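## retry 2 of 3
previous attempt timed out at serialization; input unchanged, resubmitting
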Amino acid sequence: MTVLVSGATGLVGARLLPRLVEAGVNCRALMRGGKQAPAGVSVAEADLLDPDSLMRAVEGVSAIIHLAAVFRTPDTDLIWKSNLEGTRNLIAAANARAPGARFIMASTSNIYDADSPRPAREDDAANPQQAYPASKLAAENALRESGLNWSIQRFGFVYGDKDGHLEELPRLVTHFKMHPAQRMSMVHHRDIATAMNLALIGKMDGRIVNIADEAPTSIYELVGLVGGTLEPSSGPLENPWRLHMDVSFARRLGFQPVVRTVYQAAQENLM
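## retry succeeded, writing output
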């Protein structure tokens, strides 16, 4: 099995690739010229916005893990171009050169409507307004209509392995004016690998699957865990289920998180 991974140097890809290699997966990293892949990983020099280069990159692969995305930038044109056009280009290359490959796409809990009356489920209608989740949902739909053997994983808040993501939370909370009592579904990098390994053997074919641990955790607690401070509040929480996903479907498919809570991650020095 040869697996092509886009976004190989990103927050998720840089931590997923070594775990796939350790599991015995033959990995090929889709990278722009001049970048170096982790040990044991071959490189396909290509760009998601260069369709010809993608044709070469997908040759002979049995699966594609599409992680590449642009999100924290005010440049909405770049977000849409990278996340939607880039995905369409990779889909076209797969259809042309690797039509039998599994195409596994990473997505986000941010696509769900903030005013959901319960934890978000995979079949909920969604109409995100911000560029990042809207472009990801559009890319999801392009993949679902592609004719390929697809699966989509919607991640909770990704953290762990010293990625710095949780440490950014105090700034994000201030920027987005998040309520300290807001709870978020979380997923450790170890369990992104858990989910991807299941998808690679076909457990998620043709499905959208929420991927998260067992304990959505409050903003207030998370900020405290990384040594930050946050002004407490007893004010009403307008959208209590925002960023909180129902993960029962993933469990039925066999997904069991290794890092069950962010507190376990802290205790075992996995942050």
